[in-house]
Amino acid sequence: MTQLYLSKGALPLDYFRPSIDYILDVQRSDGAIPWFHGGHFDPWDHTEAAMGLSIAGHLEEAEQAYDWLRQWQLEDGSWWARYEQGQPVLDAEARKESNFTAYVATGVWHHYLITTDETFLRRMWRTVERAIDHVVALQCRRGTIPWAIDAEGVPRAQALVTGCSSVHKSLECALNIATVLGHARPQWSLARERLGDALRNHPERFDQSKTRYSMDWFYPILGGVVRGAAARQRLQTRWSSFVEHELGCRCVSDEPWVTVAESCELTLALLAAGERHKANELFSWLHQFRCENGVYWTGYQFSLDLLWPDEQPTWTAGAVLLAADALAEATPAARLFTEVNLLEAAQQPQSAGHRELFE
Predict the structure, then answer these.
(1) How far is CA 273 from the centre of its chain?
(2) How far is CA 141 from the centre of its chain?
(3) Is residue 59 part of a domain?
(4) How far apart are CA 324 and CA 339, in angstroms?
(5) Which of 94, 152, 155, 161 has the most CB atoms within 10 Å of its CB?
(6) 41 strand-pairing partners
(7) What confidence tier does 53 reach under pLDDT thresholds 50, 70, 90?
(8) Where does the pLDDT of residue 347 fall: very low under 50, low under 70, confident under 90, or very high at 90 and above?
(9) Angstrom distance (rounded) from CA 64 to CA 33
(10) Average pLDDT over the chain, rounded to whole?
(11) Coil vs helix vs strand at 284
């Protein structure tokens, strides 16, 4: 089995060059990054791949990806959940997913951490502001955020742990962007507080049918909701249900299928919980799932000994680069998913008057 262990300060970009080149090759001339050649794409995975380009130093191409989001943002601040050939797919399943919309803030802040380019940040501000305002407006009184709204603007009933945890991280990033640019957004801070409280203390408010998914297990750590000893305890409680030794992290507990992207995200969650040795070990298992050209497959069905599906998604390549950067601490954005870093001005307690907006 091919293994790769990363130490701080050493990110072997040559090893990951095939994945970097693959993202660049798949990226469309308008900046959009489909899952693979000729495939569809969505705002979340598009952003994940763009972050991989920023890590690799392809800053112009990453900014083209963010410009695509800026240009295609809808009037209400959101994006459709699926695009094909650069156009939204407006079929019976058409929807706008809240965590997809919020994730632009995570990508923009990640790019800024690497470049410190305030011109880029200012250019993307209205896009981030409109996206986060849209998501915050969906928040329920109990702190949860519906996972999607349909084409008619009607919210879906369920709130999902994974999606809301991702939104929690995006709110952190959005608050930092606002702080750098001198914009006070106390309503975002309060929305993050209330969402974090719901995730930590009220699991009954979320769709419980998703607990078989590994992301529901580790995303509260990845999103900065659960930290420290509580994070380590959470990882320990279901480790044997989701982690297959020397293979990776299962997508769901009851299927013999490990995926590279979720294993990379679990690597980040382990680092966030202070479990560096486990993170490095888990990441070292994943390189057996590179195809001959050095690009990573989606996952491995181990009961059938089958690489499945027959895809090498750009977002998997992006997730690999994010995990590698976090382990190597090679870029200024390396700790984005492993630490909670709210800038001081974004941490100011909110006044009772602001809280009344949500009561």
Answers:
(1) 17
(2) 25
(3) yes
(4) 16
(5) 161
(6) 83
(7) very high
(8) confident
(9) 10
(10) 95
(11) helix
Q: What is the pLDDT of residues 222-275, one digit of tens each?
A: 999 999 999 999 999 999 999 999 999 999 999 999 999 999 999 999 999 999
Task: Give yes or no for a cis peptide into 146 (omega within 30° of 0).
Answer: no
State which residues form the domain around 245.
13-356
Is 7 a member of any domain?
no
CA distance 203 to 258: 26
- Classify the C-alpha dihedral 11-244-289-37 as positive or negative: negative
The one-character DSSP state at 296 is B
Closest CA to 227 of 237, 235, 239: 235
Amino acid at 253: S
Are 37 and 26 spatial neighbours (Cβ–Cβ below 8 Å)? yes
Give 168-195 pLDDT, tens digit per residue: 999 999 999 999 999 999 999 999 999 9
The helix/strand/coil state of 42 is coil
Nearest-5° angle of CA 218, CA 165, CA 260?
A: 45
How many domains, the chain? 1
Is 4 part of a structural domain of the chain?
no
Question: Any idea which residue has 């509580």 for tokens?
Answer: 230
pLDDT in tens, 9-35: 889 999 999 999 999 999 999 999 999
Residue 346: predicted pLDDT = 72
**Which region holds residue 68: left if phi is over 0, alpha if psi is between -120 and 50, else beta?**
alpha
Tokens of 145: 């955020």
* CA–CA gap between residue 141 and residue 138 (Å, rounded): 10
Q: In a 3-state reduction of DSSP, which class is residue 134?
A: helix
Q: What's the predicted TM-score (pTM) here?
A: 0.96
Count Cβ atoms below 10 Å from residue 152 Cβ, excluding itself. 6
Residue 105 forms part of a structural domain: yes
How many residues can be counted in the chain? 359
Residue 210 backbone dihedrals phi, psi, to 5 degrees: -95, 5
pLDDT at 1: 67
**Residue 161 CB neighbour total at 10 angstroms:** 26
Residue 356 has pLDDT above 60, yes or no: no
C-alpha distances in Å from residue 305, one per residue of 137, 245, 289, 302: 46, 15, 12, 5
User: Taking a C-beta distance cutoff of 8 angstroms, is the pair 178, 168 a contact?
Assistant: no
Domain with residue 269: its CATH number is 1.50.10.10
